[in-house]
């Protein structure tokens, strides 16, 4: 018979009642099920499934609150609290939330998960029997992800960021496909665990995807044109930029390439909203 250890589920028999709960047994070992960890009603002789963990004093204890994730298995768990020095806490169905250490999170805190984001994790038990969470590695995601069909090309996707690098963002879609978004295909870097929506721009031979979080070209034109108009309005209707302005000046001021700027400006002129002259663009009255 396997020895009872923290972090495992077990089928145990309700052996006897005490003032603060019940003692359960597998025939060799007894474990306390505290009143606070009971779900529903139980009776002597009944066999119940419980989760085992160490209490604050380091004693093996049982709970009828079963976790959604156990050691050796991976799943999504929602972030319920963020502590700047300790890390983030996840709800996996236990009375006590599961910690992902700050050491396992990005160095830049602005891309840490927020409450409501979800992380792809497993449950771990340290040498003292304490429970903590561990993020899935790239190797684990590769093993658990599904190969994507070619039919997904140009289709929309939804998923959560599970790995953040300077060169891009790795996303696991809701269908279980791995997707890489290059830094040039995102306007801002998603948080770890953030739910994002995008479109597939490539299906690789290994079944992984390349994606984009940027709007499609026609949608982007609308956003770029709106940004130019907003800037014009903030300056009283005119600005010292036009379609012959320096590309670096355009990038610095508007965050877009000169080509994108010219397309958006051309659209505004075609719609009769602005005019250009002598290096200036002006809103038409």
From TrEMBL:
This is S1 motif domain-containing protein. GO terms for molecular function: nucleic acid binding. Signal peptide: none annotated. Residues 5-65, 70-136, 152-214 form the S1 motif domain. Belongs to the CvfB family. InterPro entries: CvfB_fam (IPR014464), CvfB_S1_2nd (IPR048588), CvfB_S1_3rd (IPR048587), CvfB_S1_st (IPR039566), CvfB_WH (IPR040764), NA-bd_OB-fold (IPR012340), S1_domain (IPR003029), WH-like_DNA-bd_sf (IPR036388). It comes from Pradoshia eiseniae.
């Amino acid at each position: 018979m396997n020895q009872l250890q923290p972090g495992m589920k077990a089928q145990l028999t309700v052996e006897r009642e005490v003032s603060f709960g019940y003692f359960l047994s597998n025939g060799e070992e007894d474990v306390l099920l505290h009143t606070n960890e009971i779900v529903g009603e139980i009776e002597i002789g009944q066999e119940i499934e419980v989760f085992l963990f160490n209490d604050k004093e380091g004693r093996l204890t049982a709970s009828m609150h079963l976790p959604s994730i156990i050691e050796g298995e991976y799943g999504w768990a929602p972030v319920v609290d963020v502590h700047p020095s300790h890390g983030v806490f996840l709800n996996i169905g236990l009375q006590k939330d599961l910690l992902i250490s700050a050491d396992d999170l990005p160095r830049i805190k602005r891309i840490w998960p927020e409450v409501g984001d979800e992380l792809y994790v497993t449950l771990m038990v340290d040498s003292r029997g304490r429970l903590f969470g561990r993020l899935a590695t790239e190797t684990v995601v590769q093993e658990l992800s599904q190969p994507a069909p070619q039919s997904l090309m140009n289709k929309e996707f939804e998923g959560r960021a599970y790995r953040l690098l300077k060169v891009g963002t790795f996303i696991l879609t809701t269908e279980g496909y791995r997707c890489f978004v290059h830094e040039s295909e995102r306007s801002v870097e998603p948080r770890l665990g953030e739910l994002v929506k995008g479109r597939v721009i490539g299906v690789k031979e290994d079944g992984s995807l390349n994606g984009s979080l940027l709007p499609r070209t026609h949608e982007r034109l609308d956003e770029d044109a709106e940004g130019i108009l907003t800037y014009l309005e903030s300056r009283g209707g005119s600005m010292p930029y036009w379609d012959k302005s320096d590309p670096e000046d355009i990038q610095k001021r508007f965050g877009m390439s000169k080509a994108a700027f010219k397309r958006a400006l051309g659209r505004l002129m075609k719609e009769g909203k602005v005019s250009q002259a002598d290096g200036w663009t002006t809103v038409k009255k």
